[in-house]
Write a structure and sequence with these properties.
This protein is α/β, with parallel strands linked by helices and 629 residues long. The chain has 20 helices and 16 strands. The strands form two sheets. Strands 1, 2, 3, 4, 5, 6, 7, 8, 9, 10 and 11 form an eleven-stranded mixed sheet that branches.
């Protein structure tokens, strides 16, 4: 019985073991089924992404956009964000296989999108050096937006110059130039589908398709539009490429002007930004001598001009010049924002007035190209620049395209400090014309001052420019109190106030009199209304000529009045630095004879002013009486 009982127990144990194994097998099978279902779901999700792409743009249009970037066709005409600047010219589809989708598409997919190695990724087209197909040309229709990039990129590491300093062209251009010019490259016929893809990637442009193949002659009339991914930038629509080759070619350079060298071109003009070169292409070009222009209007100051980048100007035969990648149908003016930018006197004398003379004659239909780019300066004077030219500025320091124009002016001319010579000006422009232009650019309200009836309770407004550090009026509080006592409504502006631009231009325009010690701040007189008065205080040091030359002589042409007051030696803080028998006091001209640097250091940089308000009071009273009755 024990044996039988023992055998029965063993059978029960085996039965339980078989049941457990069955449950385990069933559980494993269930997990396998669940895994398969989840895998199918993921595959379905991945496949479902493609239709969402097509809701925004066809895949071919995305490839077309990337193809332009890959060929180096992006245009620096419209500055782009720092993340998009300087995309590589040769993007390989084998490096990461990722297509840079338009911003709208990327945001739609969200940050949780994942890709796997099994995902099929479209490959980016590449350009072979042996490609005989015709190179695409980008046609730019100018827009009314002027975009400014958030930051400047340092492009110094992308220099294409050899050790000998000779200009080396981009690889793509070199390869194209080296092709046999006696044979024409074959032209591929576009079928209906390709034509549709070409036109679809231009924003807001209606697409057309045709079932008829285009022959070579028809294809030559097709131009491709550019889609500009820049905030606040209007869509650029396709237009026919303007042909400059049949125009009369003309190149004239003027190296005789005392203040600036300039060159003008008419015909097939091609601008290579990063190579600082401007070609005039002509089939009859004979003189291919290269001229060099530093496009800044201060040519007599050699140390200053050494800081300005040279622009090479030359004629070339068609087979000696690079092909156009961007076409423009307006002239271009090339100038520099180097030199003394930031100093108001030099901003107007050396750049803004000359730029007005060069560009205003085109009534807004002109493009600006800038070397030694200072974006902060462009932004400060944006109202002026946009009034002259509504088109995006070309940054020649970074632009790698070949821009083609019907005409060009390299360099701008300054006639005199803060002034215009109508005999040298296009259309006989005067300084009054420039001041009217300034009022329009900044929307300044007052054109003229008015005589004030004191019975009305109103008073003339006196703007006092307060300096800090050098040539400062150390007893400025006494001066302000005296001016108020005379009857002026005083507006005191320290350097922080003057930097609030263009708000400060409106402050100046609201005043009848502007008072200041000799210095660049007086150049703000451009914003004063006609018949206003500029009262210049001259520091000690026989500075009458300097003061009148810069801020006295220009005023009649502006329609402004001029009054000057020269201090005595005991009103200068120089009495605490030099003995009274020093040449600084006994013979100031001897200091001038030692050169500009010595004169500037002593009389303009080391001196502050202790104004004798009792002596100055009579001058201020006379000015006050001229504005009241």
């Amino acid at each position: 019985m024990k044996r039988l009982d023992g055998s029965s127990k063993i059978n029960k144990i085996k039965g339980k073991g078989i049941g457990a194994a069955t449950v385990l097998v069933s559980l494993i099978a269930f997990l396998i089924v669940i895994s398969l279902l989840e895998s199918n779901s993921r595959a379905s999700t991945i496949l479902d992404l493609q239709p969402s792409f097509n809701n925004y743009a066809p895949l071919s249009s995305i490839e077309g956009t990337t193809n332009h970037l890959q060929q180096g066709k992006e245009s620096n005409v419209v500055p782009i964000s720092s993340e998009e600047k300087h995309k590589p010219e040769n993007i390989s589809s084998e490096t990461d296989g990722v297509i840079n989708l338009p911003i709208r598409m990327t945001e739609d997919l969200g940050s949780n999108e994942k890709t796997t190695d099994n995902d099929e990724k479209p490959t980016l087209p590449t350009v072979s050096s042996e490609d005989t197909s015709p190179k695409e040309e980008l046609v730019v229709k100018e827009t009314n937006e002027l975009a400014i990039p958030a930051e400047e990129k340092d492009d110094s590491n992308n220099s294409n110059q050899d050790d000998g300093g000779e200009m080396m062209l981009p690889t793509r251009l070199t390869e194209q130039w080296n092709q046999d010019k006696t044979t024409e490259s074959s032209k591929m016929e576009l079928n209906a589908e390709e034509k549709s893809e070409t036109t679809e990637w231009s924003q807001d442009e209606a697409t057309e398709s045709s079932n008829t193949e285009l022959n070579a002659e028809e294809k030559s009339e097709i131009t491709e539009s550019q889609s500009v991914n820049s905030e606040n930038q209007e869509d650029i629509k396709p237009e026919e490429i303007p042909s400059n080759q049949n125009q009369k070619n003309k190149l004239e350079c003027d190296f005789t002007h005392p203040r600036a060298d300039t060159c003008t071109m008419e015909g097939d003009v091609r601008v290579l930004g990063t190579y600082s070169t401007v070609f005039l292409v002509s089939p009859t070009a004979q003189d291919t001598t290269e001229s060099k222009i530093r496009p800044y209007a201060r040519k007599w100051e050699k140390p200053t001009m050494q800081m300005i980048k040279e622009v090479n100007v030359k004629q070339a035969l068609p087979d000696q010049a690079p092909p156009c990648t961007v076409h423009h149908d307006v002239p271009v003016v090339v100038f520099s924002t180097g030199g003394f930018v930031g100093n108001v006197f030099h901003d107007y004398t050396d750049i803004l007035i000359p730029l007005f003379l060069a560009a205003n004659q085109y009534e807004g239909k002109v493009q600006f190209a800038v070397t030694d780019m200072s974006w902060w300066w462009i932004f400060k004077y944006l109202p002026i620049i946009k009034t002259l030219s509504p088109y995006p500025i070309l940054n020649l320091d970074q632009d790698k395209n070949v821009h083609c124009f019907p005409s060009a002016q390299i360099g701008v001319k300054s006639h005199k400090p803060m002034g215009v010579d109508p005999t040298q000006s296009p259309n006989g422009y005067t300084m009054q014309d420039f001041r009217a232009f300034i009022r329009k650019s900044f929307s300044l309200k007052r054109s003229y001052t008015r005589v004030i009836d004191l019975k009305s309770g109103k008073r003339p407004r006196l703007l006092i420019l307060l300096r800090r550090g050098t040539r400062a009026i150390v007893n400025e509080k006494q001066l302000i109190a005296m001016a108020k006592k005379i009857g002026f409504r005083v507006v005191a502006a320290d350097p922080d106030k003057t930097r609030e631009f263009p708000k400060f231009a409106h402050v100046v325009n609201s005043c009848d009199v502007m008072l200041g010690v000799h210095g660049a701040g007086l150049a703000n007189m451009l914003y004063l209304p006609t018949n206003a008065t500029v009262l210049q205080i001259l520091p000690w040091g026989d500075l009458g000529f300097v003061g009148r030359h810069d801020y006295g002589l220009p005023l009649p042409d502006m329609g402004l009045r001029y009054v000057e007051h020269e201090i005595k030696e005991d009103e200068s803080t120089l009495i605490y630095k030099y003995p009274r028998d020093h040449a600084v006091f006994t013979n100031p001209q001897a200091i001038h004879d030692q050169g500009w640097d010595t004169m500037y250091r002593i009389f303009l940089n080391e001196q502050n002013i202790m104004l004798n308000v009792d002596r100055f009071k009579g001058v201020l009273i006379d000015v006050f009486k001229s504005y009241v009755r």
